[in-house]
């Protein structure tokens, strides 16, 4: 049989920005005017066939810094054998994390770590396409021993040993075929944040909350944390719109000190919030533990800004969270998220991923679906966030049916954007931004 000599020949990068701040989509107490953006990359190969697509999410300015970080990783990627790196994505993950001069900028956190995640995710996209499977199926079909080889246990072995992880993966295989069939039939439960952006009027909140319930969602989420009186009013409006039987989570986006988080959350307790999300700094493990103790039975959730598996380990060890919210693009890609899913399974904490943004729904659905099919084996108290923004820019966008994510069937990680979207929203050369700048200049010219 002929040897596959295909190599990665280029890492193309793009600064993609969408003007979401103009409609206050995505607005919250900490981020009042986000422009949803993606530092986007394409792995091109020396042969006709699939490319690998990946990205990480930002909210506007700073996306250029994130793109530069991805470009700094090129020398580790270009020239690699496609067959070898797809057979063992951990080999690239180890090299990217192990570059000592770039590691100094973290280690394993911040802009460089997010860049590593984008590149690693693009390799997994390429691997899944070459196998002809959606990523969730590639992971679910994999042998437990191979999945174990993809996990970096450095710094987490005191909480989760390789033997324990292998036991969890082998146990997850039991009944996985039946769960995969059920996933394809029913999908994976979702909740929606679309009604709850802080900049929306009460009328828009009410309309979108009614629509969410009608569309089959059993949980919505509201942004809080800027003004207590305003939060009380908005929670009252939302609860009146959805009734007593729909879960309502609240999200402070790291706005509070610990004592303020406790008093503010308890002030909203009359509206029966299901969880309080990001009540304080994502790095404050003991602060989260204190909040959790003092606001029970309201659950504490965090994770979208948790920078690596080590902080997640500590949150779990300290009993600081009730809900773990991993992010597909914040940490070092699929490999590190496998470690985080295994930690959550070890500690019995449900995973309800962060999504929304640009393409985060598309990515993270695969991780939760693998977790259900071949690791935790359950969707009880587990939901994936859904935000109805920007999906039209993706080749294989998410599909929501009766409040559930439909399982993707197209090969890959659902990461590829339409070429027309890239050409339109690439910053600042894209058609939209060129026209926008011209309009601003015309407006500024005195009459």
UniProtKB/TrEMBL annotation:
<protein>
    <recommendedName>
        <fullName>L-fuconate dehydratase</fullName>
        <ecNumber>4.2.1.68</ecNumber>
    </recommendedName>
</protein>
<dbReference type="InterPro" id="IPR029065">
    <property type="entry name" value="Enolase_C-like"/>
</dbReference>
<dbReference type="Pfam" id="PF02746">
    <property type="entry name" value="MR_MLE_N"/>
</dbReference>
<dbReference type="InterPro" id="IPR034610">
    <property type="entry name" value="L-fuconate_dehydratase"/>
</dbReference>
<dbReference type="InterPro" id="IPR029017">
    <property type="entry name" value="Enolase-like_N"/>
</dbReference>
<dbReference type="InterPro" id="IPR036849">
    <property type="entry name" value="Enolase-like_C_sf"/>
</dbReference>
<dbReference type="InterPro" id="IPR013341">
    <property type="entry name" value="Mandelate_racemase_N_dom"/>
</dbReference>
<dbReference type="InterPro" id="IPR013342">
    <property type="entry name" value="Mandelate_racemase_C"/>
</dbReference>
<keyword id="KW-0460">Magnesium</keyword>
<dbReference type="InterPro" id="IPR046945">
    <property type="entry name" value="RHMD-like"/>
</dbReference>
<keyword id="KW-0456">Lyase</keyword>
<keyword id="KW-0479">Metal-binding</keyword>
<dbReference type="Pfam" id="PF13378">
    <property type="entry name" value="MR_MLE_C"/>
</dbReference>
<feature type="domain" description="Mandelate racemase/muconate lactonizing enzyme C-terminal">
    <location>
        <begin position="202"/>
        <end position="298"/>
    </location>
</feature>
